[in-house]
UniProtKB/TrEMBL annotation:
Protein name: Metallophosphoesterase
Phylogenetic classification of the source organism: Bacteria, Bacillati, Actinomycetota, Actinomycetes, Kitasatosporales
Pfam families for the chain: Metallophos
Domain of life: Bacteria
Transmembrane domains' residue ranges: 28-46, 52-75, 87-110, 130-148
Segments forming domain Calcineurin-like phosphoesterase: 174-342
Keywords: Hydrolase, Membrane, Metal-binding, Transmembrane, Transmembrane helix
Length: 406
Protein backbone atom coordinates (compact mmCIF):
# COMPACT_ATOMS: atom_id res chain seq x y z
CA UNK A 1 0.00 0.00 0.00
CA UNK A 2 1.43 3.38 -0.96
CA UNK A 3 0.85 6.71 0.71
CA UNK A 4 -0.85 9.55 -1.13
CA UNK A 5 0.94 12.87 -1.53
CA UNK A 6 -1.52 14.39 0.95
CA UNK A 7 -0.67 11.74 3.50
CA UNK A 8 3.05 12.26 2.99
CA UNK A 9 2.63 15.99 3.36
CA UNK A 10 0.65 15.63 6.56
CA UNK A 11 3.19 13.20 7.93
CA UNK A 12 6.04 15.55 7.11
CA UNK A 13 4.25 18.45 8.85
CA UNK A 14 3.49 16.29 11.89
CA UNK A 15 7.19 15.53 12.24
CA UNK A 16 8.13 19.18 11.78
CA UNK A 17 9.72 19.10 8.32
CA UNK A 18 11.02 16.94 5.51
CA UNK A 19 12.29 13.39 6.12
CA UNK A 20 15.67 13.06 7.81
CA UNK A 21 18.71 11.54 6.12
CA UNK A 22 18.09 8.30 8.03
CA UNK A 23 14.48 8.16 6.85
CA UNK A 24 15.58 8.75 3.25
CA UNK A 25 18.23 6.05 3.61
CA UNK A 26 15.66 3.55 4.90
CA UNK A 27 13.74 3.92 1.65
CA UNK A 28 16.70 2.41 -0.19
CA UNK A 29 17.27 -0.41 2.31
CA UNK A 30 15.53 -3.06 0.14
CA UNK A 31 18.08 -2.26 -2.59
CA UNK A 32 21.12 -1.86 -0.33
CA UNK A 33 20.60 -4.93 1.90
CA UNK A 34 20.92 -7.64 -0.81
CA UNK A 35 24.07 -6.01 -2.18
CA UNK A 36 25.67 -5.97 1.29
CA UNK A 37 24.59 -9.55 2.00
CA UNK A 38 26.42 -10.84 -1.07
CA UNK A 39 29.26 -8.31 -1.41
CA UNK A 40 30.62 -8.58 2.15
CA UNK A 41 31.17 -12.37 2.13
CA UNK A 42 32.59 -12.12 -1.40
CA UNK A 43 35.14 -9.58 -0.23
CA UNK A 44 36.04 -11.44 2.98
CA UNK A 45 36.39 -14.86 1.34
CA UNK A 46 38.00 -13.91 -1.98
CA UNK A 47 39.43 -10.39 -2.07
CA UNK A 48 41.07 -9.46 1.24
CA UNK A 49 44.61 -10.72 0.96
CA UNK A 50 44.11 -14.39 0.07
CA UNK A 51 45.66 -14.15 -3.43
CA UNK A 52 43.78 -17.19 -4.74
CA UNK A 53 44.62 -18.46 -8.24
CA UNK A 54 42.80 -16.33 -10.81
CA UNK A 55 40.31 -19.08 -11.87
CA UNK A 56 39.27 -19.53 -8.20
CA UNK A 57 38.76 -15.79 -7.72
CA UNK A 58 36.81 -15.38 -10.96
CA UNK A 59 34.63 -18.44 -10.37
CA UNK A 60 33.89 -17.49 -6.77
CA UNK A 61 33.07 -13.91 -7.67
CA UNK A 62 30.78 -15.09 -10.49
CA UNK A 63 28.88 -17.32 -8.04
CA UNK A 64 28.31 -14.39 -5.68
CA UNK A 65 27.08 -12.22 -8.56
CA UNK A 66 24.71 -14.97 -9.69
CA UNK A 67 23.41 -15.26 -6.13
CA UNK A 68 22.87 -11.50 -5.91
CA UNK A 69 20.84 -11.56 -9.12
CA UNK A 70 19.15 -14.92 -8.67
CA UNK A 71 17.95 -14.62 -5.07
CA UNK A 72 15.58 -11.65 -5.52
CA UNK A 73 14.36 -13.02 -8.86
CA UNK A 74 13.56 -16.40 -7.31
CA UNK A 75 11.83 -14.80 -4.34
CA UNK A 76 9.80 -12.54 -6.62
CA UNK A 77 8.60 -15.53 -8.66
CA UNK A 78 8.04 -17.61 -5.54
CA UNK A 79 6.25 -15.08 -3.35
CA UNK A 80 4.85 -12.69 -5.93
CA UNK A 81 1.83 -13.12 -8.15
CA UNK A 82 3.07 -16.35 -9.73
CA UNK A 83 3.50 -18.15 -6.38
CA UNK A 84 5.87 -20.75 -7.82
CA UNK A 85 6.82 -23.03 -4.95
CA UNK A 86 10.08 -24.27 -6.49
CA UNK A 87 11.27 -20.71 -7.02
CA UNK A 88 10.27 -19.83 -3.45
CA UNK A 89 12.31 -22.76 -2.10
CA UNK A 90 15.38 -21.64 -4.06
CA UNK A 91 15.01 -17.98 -3.07
CA UNK A 92 14.30 -18.72 0.60
CA UNK A 93 17.22 -21.14 0.87
CA UNK A 94 19.59 -18.65 -0.72
CA UNK A 95 18.37 -15.95 1.67
CA UNK A 96 18.96 -18.10 4.74
CA UNK A 97 22.32 -19.30 3.49
CA UNK A 98 23.66 -15.87 2.63
CA UNK A 99 22.42 -14.43 5.93
CA UNK A 100 24.44 -16.99 7.88
CA UNK A 101 27.47 -16.56 5.59
CA UNK A 102 27.26 -12.75 5.91
CA UNK A 103 27.00 -12.93 9.72
CA UNK A 104 30.04 -15.13 10.16
CA UNK A 105 32.02 -13.36 7.45
CA UNK A 106 31.66 -10.18 9.52
CA UNK A 107 32.32 -11.81 12.90
CA UNK A 108 35.20 -14.08 11.95
CA UNK A 109 36.48 -11.66 9.34
CA UNK A 110 37.15 -9.16 12.13
CA UNK A 111 37.62 -11.14 15.35
CA UNK A 112 39.55 -14.14 14.06
CA UNK A 113 41.79 -12.02 11.86
CA UNK A 114 42.53 -9.77 14.84
CA UNK A 115 43.28 -12.76 17.09
CA UNK A 116 45.60 -14.28 14.49
CA UNK A 117 47.40 -10.97 14.03
CA UNK A 118 47.89 -10.54 17.78
CA UNK A 119 49.14 -14.12 18.03
CA UNK A 120 51.54 -13.51 15.15
CA UNK A 121 50.22 -16.46 13.17
CA UNK A 122 51.63 -16.61 9.63
CA UNK A 123 51.72 -13.75 7.17
CA UNK A 124 48.78 -11.76 5.83
CA UNK A 125 47.85 -14.35 3.19
CA UNK A 126 47.97 -17.23 5.70
CA UNK A 127 45.68 -15.35 8.08
CA UNK A 128 43.27 -14.44 5.27
CA UNK A 129 43.00 -18.07 4.15
CA UNK A 130 42.48 -19.31 7.71
CA UNK A 131 39.60 -16.83 8.04
CA UNK A 132 38.12 -18.00 4.72
CA UNK A 133 38.12 -21.67 5.66
CA UNK A 134 36.86 -20.90 9.18
CA UNK A 135 33.94 -18.88 7.79
CA UNK A 136 33.03 -21.60 5.28
CA UNK A 137 33.30 -24.34 7.90
CA UNK A 138 31.21 -22.56 10.53
CA UNK A 139 28.60 -21.62 7.92
CA UNK A 140 28.33 -25.19 6.61
CA UNK A 141 27.92 -26.62 10.12
CA UNK A 142 25.33 -24.02 11.17
CA UNK A 143 23.28 -24.45 8.00
CA UNK A 144 23.23 -28.24 8.32
CA UNK A 145 22.28 -28.02 11.99
CA UNK A 146 19.80 -25.19 11.34
CA UNK A 147 18.06 -27.19 8.61
CA UNK A 148 17.69 -30.19 10.92
CA UNK A 149 16.34 -27.91 13.67
CA UNK A 150 13.78 -26.36 11.33
CA UNK A 151 12.49 -29.67 9.95
CA UNK A 152 12.25 -31.67 13.20
CA UNK A 153 9.13 -31.96 15.35
CA UNK A 154 9.54 -29.30 18.04
CA UNK A 155 10.36 -30.24 21.60
CA UNK A 156 7.65 -29.61 24.18
CA UNK A 157 8.33 -26.72 26.50
CA UNK A 158 6.43 -27.05 29.79
CA UNK A 159 5.90 -24.39 32.42
CA UNK A 160 3.55 -23.51 35.26
CA UNK A 161 1.95 -20.06 35.13
CA UNK A 162 0.33 -18.67 38.26
CA UNK A 163 -2.59 -16.33 37.69
CA UNK A 164 -3.63 -14.52 40.89
CA UNK A 165 -7.30 -14.29 39.88
CA UNK A 166 -7.61 -17.93 38.77
CA UNK A 167 -10.09 -19.86 40.89
CA UNK A 168 -9.02 -23.05 42.69
CA UNK A 169 -11.34 -25.13 40.51
CA UNK A 170 -9.26 -24.24 37.44
CA UNK A 171 -5.91 -25.00 39.05
CA UNK A 172 -3.98 -27.42 36.83
CA UNK A 173 -5.77 -26.41 33.60
CA UNK A 174 -3.55 -27.53 30.72
CA UNK A 175 -3.16 -25.18 27.76
CA UNK A 176 -1.24 -26.37 24.68
CA UNK A 177 0.05 -23.69 22.35
CA UNK A 178 1.17 -24.04 18.74
CA UNK A 179 1.77 -21.11 16.45
CA UNK A 180 3.49 -19.98 13.26
CA UNK A 181 3.28 -23.36 11.56
CA UNK A 182 3.83 -21.57 8.24
CA UNK A 183 2.87 -24.43 5.94
CA UNK A 184 4.43 -23.39 2.67
CA UNK A 185 6.41 -24.28 -0.46
CA UNK A 186 8.16 -27.21 1.24
CA UNK A 187 5.51 -29.90 1.66
CA UNK A 188 5.30 -30.62 5.40
CA UNK A 189 2.13 -32.69 5.61
CA UNK A 190 3.94 -35.55 7.42
CA UNK A 191 5.60 -33.06 9.77
CA UNK A 192 2.20 -31.51 10.45
CA UNK A 193 0.72 -34.89 11.36
CA UNK A 194 3.60 -35.62 13.76
CA UNK A 195 3.19 -32.22 15.42
CA UNK A 196 -0.49 -32.94 15.98
CA UNK A 197 0.32 -36.37 17.39
CA UNK A 198 2.70 -34.72 19.86
CA UNK A 199 0.05 -32.20 20.89
CA UNK A 200 -2.38 -35.04 21.55
CA UNK A 201 0.04 -36.66 24.01
CA UNK A 202 -0.23 -33.54 26.20
CA UNK A 203 -3.88 -34.26 27.10
CA UNK A 204 -4.68 -30.54 27.06
CA UNK A 205 -7.92 -28.97 28.19
CA UNK A 206 -7.43 -26.13 25.71
CA UNK A 207 -5.36 -26.14 22.50
CA UNK A 208 -4.51 -22.77 20.94
CA UNK A 209 -3.10 -21.74 17.57
CA UNK A 210 -2.09 -18.08 17.56
CA UNK A 211 -1.86 -17.56 13.83
CA UNK A 212 0.39 -17.67 10.76
CA UNK A 213 -0.88 -21.11 9.82
CA UNK A 214 0.59 -20.98 6.33
CA UNK A 215 2.08 -19.02 3.48
CA UNK A 216 -0.44 -19.44 0.71
CA UNK A 217 -4.18 -19.77 0.48
CA UNK A 218 -6.21 -22.34 2.40
CA UNK A 219 -7.03 -24.11 -0.86
CA UNK A 220 -3.36 -24.39 -1.76
CA UNK A 221 -2.08 -25.53 1.67
CA UNK A 222 -5.11 -27.61 2.70
CA UNK A 223 -3.23 -30.94 2.65
CA UNK A 224 -0.58 -29.63 5.05
CA UNK A 225 -3.15 -28.05 7.37
CA UNK A 226 -5.56 -31.03 7.36
CA UNK A 227 -3.87 -32.85 10.29
CA UNK A 228 -4.95 -29.96 12.54
CA UNK A 229 -8.38 -31.58 12.40
CA UNK A 230 -7.00 -34.53 14.40
CA UNK A 231 -5.91 -32.41 17.39
CA UNK A 232 -7.74 -33.32 20.58
CA UNK A 233 -8.67 -31.10 23.53
CA UNK A 234 -11.02 -31.90 26.39
CA UNK A 235 -12.65 -28.44 26.28
CA UNK A 236 -11.87 -26.44 23.15
CA UNK A 237 -9.54 -25.80 20.21
CA UNK A 238 -9.24 -22.10 19.46
CA UNK A 239 -7.47 -20.06 16.78
CA UNK A 240 -6.74 -16.42 15.91
CA UNK A 241 -5.41 -14.93 12.68
CA UNK A 242 -1.79 -13.92 12.16
CA UNK A 243 -0.39 -11.34 9.78
CA UNK A 244 0.44 -13.97 7.13
CA UNK A 245 -3.21 -14.94 6.84
CA UNK A 246 -3.79 -11.43 5.55
CA UNK A 247 -1.34 -12.04 2.71
CA UNK A 248 -3.30 -15.17 1.69
CA UNK A 249 -7.09 -14.69 1.80
CA UNK A 250 -7.57 -14.70 5.58
CA UNK A 251 -11.27 -15.51 5.46
CA UNK A 252 -10.44 -18.76 3.68
CA UNK A 253 -8.23 -19.78 6.61
CA UNK A 254 -10.91 -18.81 9.13
CA UNK A 255 -13.40 -20.97 7.24
CA UNK A 256 -11.00 -23.91 6.96
CA UNK A 257 -10.16 -23.85 10.68
CA UNK A 258 -13.87 -23.82 11.43
CA UNK A 259 -14.28 -26.79 9.07
CA UNK A 260 -11.47 -28.63 10.90
CA UNK A 261 -13.26 -28.19 14.21
CA UNK A 262 -11.36 -25.20 15.60
CA UNK A 263 -13.18 -22.15 16.97
CA UNK A 264 -11.86 -18.96 15.35
CA UNK A 265 -11.90 -16.36 18.13
CA UNK A 266 -12.36 -13.33 15.95
CA UNK A 267 -12.84 -10.58 18.52
CA UNK A 268 -14.97 -12.83 20.70
CA UNK A 269 -14.62 -15.10 23.69
CA UNK A 270 -15.79 -18.36 25.19
CA UNK A 271 -15.98 -19.54 28.79
CA UNK A 272 -14.00 -22.44 30.19
CA UNK A 273 -15.60 -23.74 33.38
CA UNK A 274 -14.28 -26.29 35.85
CA UNK A 275 -14.78 -26.96 39.56
CA UNK A 276 -17.22 -24.06 39.91
CA UNK A 277 -14.76 -21.50 38.52
CA UNK A 278 -14.64 -19.80 35.12
CA UNK A 279 -11.88 -18.61 32.77
CA UNK A 280 -12.60 -16.23 29.90
CA UNK A 281 -10.75 -17.34 26.75
CA UNK A 282 -10.72 -14.44 24.28
CA UNK A 283 -9.09 -13.79 20.93
CA UNK A 284 -8.51 -10.88 18.55
CA UNK A 285 -7.65 -10.59 14.87
CA UNK A 286 -4.05 -9.68 14.09
CA UNK A 287 -3.13 -6.00 14.32
CA UNK A 288 -2.60 -5.92 10.53
CA UNK A 289 -6.17 -7.04 9.88
CA UNK A 290 -7.74 -3.61 9.51
CA UNK A 291 -5.26 -2.50 6.82
CA UNK A 292 -6.01 -5.67 4.84
CA UNK A 293 -9.25 -4.22 3.52
CA UNK A 294 -11.27 -7.32 4.47
CA UNK A 295 -14.67 -6.35 5.79
CA UNK A 296 -15.08 -7.03 9.50
CA UNK A 297 -11.43 -7.90 10.13
CA UNK A 298 -9.68 -5.83 12.80
CA UNK A 299 -8.17 -6.25 16.26
CA UNK A 300 -10.96 -5.24 18.65
CA UNK A 301 -10.28 -6.17 22.27
CA UNK A 302 -13.35 -4.46 23.68
CA UNK A 303 -15.49 -6.51 21.32
CA UNK A 304 -13.69 -9.69 22.31
CA UNK A 305 -14.52 -9.05 25.97
CA UNK A 306 -18.04 -7.78 25.39
CA UNK A 307 -20.43 -9.49 27.80
CA UNK A 308 -17.70 -11.10 29.91
CA UNK A 309 -17.71 -10.59 33.69
CA UNK A 310 -14.88 -8.14 34.44
CA UNK A 311 -14.11 -10.01 37.68
CA UNK A 312 -13.18 -13.20 35.84
CA UNK A 313 -9.59 -14.00 34.78
CA UNK A 314 -8.90 -13.63 31.05
CA UNK A 315 -6.66 -15.66 28.76
CA UNK A 316 -6.16 -13.72 25.51
CA UNK A 317 -4.89 -14.99 22.16
CA UNK A 318 -3.20 -12.30 20.05
CA UNK A 319 -0.71 -13.13 17.32
CA UNK A 320 1.82 -10.36 17.92
CA UNK A 321 3.40 -9.68 21.33
CA UNK A 322 3.11 -5.92 20.84
CA UNK A 323 -0.64 -6.20 21.39
CA UNK A 324 0.22 -6.62 25.09
CA UNK A 325 0.09 -2.85 25.64
CA UNK A 326 -3.64 -2.92 24.92
CA UNK A 327 -4.03 -6.14 26.89
CA UNK A 328 -2.37 -4.62 29.96
CA UNK A 329 -4.56 -1.52 29.69
CA UNK A 330 -7.61 -3.84 29.88
CA UNK A 331 -6.22 -5.84 32.81
CA UNK A 332 -5.82 -9.09 30.86
CA UNK A 333 -4.28 -11.84 33.02
CA UNK A 334 -2.35 -13.79 30.37
CA UNK A 335 -1.72 -13.14 26.67
CA UNK A 336 -0.45 -15.90 24.38
CA UNK A 337 1.43 -14.85 21.23
CA UNK A 338 3.85 -16.02 18.56
CA UNK A 339 5.10 -14.08 15.53
CA UNK A 340 8.75 -13.54 16.60
CA UNK A 341 10.10 -17.07 15.88
CA UNK A 342 12.64 -16.20 18.57
CA UNK A 343 14.53 -14.50 15.74
CA UNK A 344 14.73 -17.82 13.80
CA UNK A 345 18.28 -17.25 12.48
CA UNK A 346 20.74 -15.59 14.85
CA UNK A 347 21.38 -12.66 15.14
CA UNK A 348 18.11 -11.58 13.50
CA UNK A 349 16.56 -11.40 17.00
CA UNK A 350 18.13 -7.94 17.42
CA UNK A 351 15.92 -6.65 14.60
CA UNK A 352 12.85 -8.39 16.05
CA UNK A 353 13.40 -6.57 19.35
CA UNK A 354 13.07 -3.24 17.54
CA UNK A 355 9.47 -4.12 16.69
CA UNK A 356 8.28 -6.31 19.57
CA UNK A 357 8.35 -5.97 23.38
CA UNK A 358 9.30 -9.63 23.89
CA UNK A 359 11.24 -12.23 21.93
CA UNK A 360 10.35 -15.49 23.68
CA UNK A 361 9.18 -16.85 27.02
CA UNK A 362 7.19 -15.39 29.89
CA UNK A 363 7.29 -11.67 30.68
CA UNK A 364 5.28 -9.27 32.85
CA UNK A 365 3.66 -6.10 31.53
CA UNK A 366 1.95 -3.66 33.86
CA UNK A 367 0.73 -4.70 37.29
CA UNK A 368 -1.28 -7.76 36.28
CA UNK A 369 -0.64 -8.89 32.72
CA UNK A 370 1.64 -11.79 31.82
CA UNK A 371 2.70 -12.43 28.22
CA UNK A 372 3.92 -15.74 26.90
CA UNK A 373 5.67 -15.48 23.54
CA UNK A 374 6.30 -18.73 21.70
CA UNK A 375 9.31 -19.13 19.40
CA UNK A 376 6.91 -20.79 16.98
CA UNK A 377 6.26 -24.34 15.86
CA UNK A 378 7.40 -24.09 12.23
CA UNK A 379 9.57 -21.66 10.28
CA UNK A 380 9.04 -18.87 7.79
CA UNK A 381 10.88 -18.72 4.47
CA UNK A 382 14.47 -19.93 4.90
CA UNK A 383 14.33 -23.57 6.12
CA UNK A 384 16.77 -22.94 8.95
CA UNK A 385 16.63 -22.29 12.68
CA UNK A 386 19.92 -21.17 14.22
CA UNK A 387 20.02 -20.64 18.00
CA UNK A 388 16.23 -20.20 18.01
CA UNK A 389 14.65 -23.65 18.49
CA UNK A 390 11.01 -24.24 17.63
CA UNK A 391 8.55 -25.29 20.32
CA UNK A 392 5.22 -26.78 21.25
CA UNK A 393 4.24 -25.23 24.56
CA UNK A 394 2.30 -26.69 27.47
CA UNK A 395 1.26 -24.10 30.03
CA UNK A 396 -0.26 -25.38 33.25
CA UNK A 397 -2.35 -22.65 34.85
CA UNK A 398 -2.02 -22.38 38.62
CA UNK A 399 -4.25 -20.74 41.19
CA UNK A 400 -2.81 -19.19 44.36
CA UNK A 401 -5.44 -21.17 46.29
CA UNK A 402 -4.30 -24.49 44.81
CA UNK A 403 -6.78 -27.14 43.86
CA UNK A 404 -7.07 -30.20 41.69
CA UNK A 405 -3.61 -30.97 40.31
CA UNK A 406 -4.76 -33.85 38.13
Amino acid sequence: MTETSDTRSATGEAHGGPPSRLQRLMRYLPLIAPVLLWAVPCGVLLHTGQHWPLPVTLTGTALFVLGLIGMPLAMARGHGRRQQDRAAIVGDTLLGGIWVLFTWSVLLGVLLRLALTVAGTGDGQDRARIVTWAVLGVTAVLLAWGYAEARRVPRVRRLDVQLPRLGAGLDGTRVALITDTHYGPLDRARWSARVCETVNTLEADLVCHTGDIADGTAERRRAQAAPLGTVRASRARVYVTGNHEYYSEAQGWVDLMDELGWEPLRNRHLLLERGGDTLVVAGVDDVTAESSGLAGHRAHLAGALDGADSELPVLLLAHQPKFVDRAAAHGIDLQLSGHTHGGQIWPFHHLVRLDQPALAGLSRHGTRTLLYTSRGTGFWGPPFRVFAPSEITLLVLRSPQGGDLS
